[in-house]
Amino acid sequence: MKEPITVSITGAAGQIGYAILFRIASGFVFGEEQPVNLRLIEIEPGLPALKGVVMELEDCAFPLLNEVVATTDLDEGFKGANWAFLIGSVPRKAGMERADLLGINGKIFTGQGQAIARSASKDVRVLVVGNPCNTNALIAMNNAEGVPNDRFFAMTRLDENRAKSQLAAKAGVHNSDVTNLCIWGNHSATQYPDFTNAKIKGRPVTEVITDRDWLEGEFIKTVQQRGAAIINARGASSAASAANAAMDTVKSLINPTPEGDWYSVAVCSDGSYGIEKGLIVSMPIRTKDDGSWEVVQGVPVNDFSREKIDATVNELKEERDAVKDLIPA
Ligand code: NAX
């Protein structure tokens, strides 16, 4: 058996936590030969529920689950972490402005970034799911002194999966037939699901789905608004699909990407595609054979795409400016 890897998860007693822990413990993400330690982080009010979750983990008797720690202490929680899923955050309440939300959550992510720098493993990688996830990741990254910027990611994979399913349904194919779908920008209603470069069974989507009005209008809107549609239907926000997308993200980051394809995750911009350096922006990413990732270069950006990408990147700049006090110079 291999040495266990350590996975830290914040917000572990929440909806997404409940949908992700058991699948990680079962080997779905890191493989059936890889034991895992789970370090579960909650705030004080979440601890009783977390205790119940830990009891259920015990009751699964997972062969790969080596150790479970439940804590409110960040250094204990991130101790030795090879992977950190930052899921917990404060939801937006009625009457709360976006700037208030950015500020409240921003403070959480400064402390978590600092604790990751102090206590996680040298090879730690961090996936931020808690919203506003791009800017939370930006804050954590900038407060994790000594941890390279290329270890921080924010989740847009749920948006990619949603977009693929919409295109597949429209074309009457299976969602696995849809490739090269990039979500650009922010995980918010400004995100741009780029149908112009996506493919269905290797053919451009725009050749298979000739209804351009649908692609430019309803398709984009449906993907952008899908989170709200789930809340309306279910009375609660996406959880199982979000957990699934977080696991898809990590699987894509640790396994080489099939030739010619790419996936979406928000990373620290290196200036590619004219996007300001240092922002956490979703773009087309590939994982190389050596396990490192790269921004796919040369993806065509037409005028329609440029306008959409600029709009979502501008929103990220505004978010960055709203939390500038939380980003050390
Ligand atoms: P829940 O409210 O069910 O759970 C959140 C949990 O986090 C709670 O148990 C709470 O006690 C805990 N928590 C709060 N502050 C914490 C802190 N400082 N440290 C540790 N734990 C803390 O929310 P859930 O449905 O699980 O969603 C979690 C986050 O994911 C939310 O911010 C949500 O907006 C975000 N999402 C992000 C998505 C994405 O695609 N990036 C999609 C799904 C989801 O909306």
TrEMBL record:
Occurrences of domain Lactate/malate dehydrogenase N-terminal (ranges): 7-148
Keyword terms, alphabetized: NAD, Oxidoreductase, Tricarboxylic acid cycle
Matches recorded under Pfam families: Ldh_1_C (PF02866), Ldh_1_N (PF00056)
Binding site for substrate: 92, 98, 131, 162
Binding site for NAD(+): 11-17, 105, 112, 129-131
Domain of life: Bacteria
InterPro entries reported in the protein's UniProt record: L-lactate/malate_DH, Lactate/malate_DH_C, Lactate/malate_DH_N, Lactate_DH/Glyco_Ohase_4_C, Malate_DH_AS, Malate_DH_type2, NAD(P)-bd_dom_sf
Matching CDD domains: MDH_chloroplast-like
Reactions catalysed, as given in the entry: (S)-malate + NAD(+) = oxaloacetate + NADH + H(+)
Active site residues of this protein: 187
GO MF annotation list: L-malate dehydrogenase (NAD+) activity
Start and end residues of each Lactate/malate dehydrogenase C-terminal domain: 156-324
Enzyme class, first EC level, given as a word: oxidoreductase
Membership in a protein family: Belongs to the LDH/MDH superfamily. MDH type 2 family.
Biological function: Catalyzes the reversible oxidation of malate to oxaloacetate.
Protein name: Malate dehydrogenase
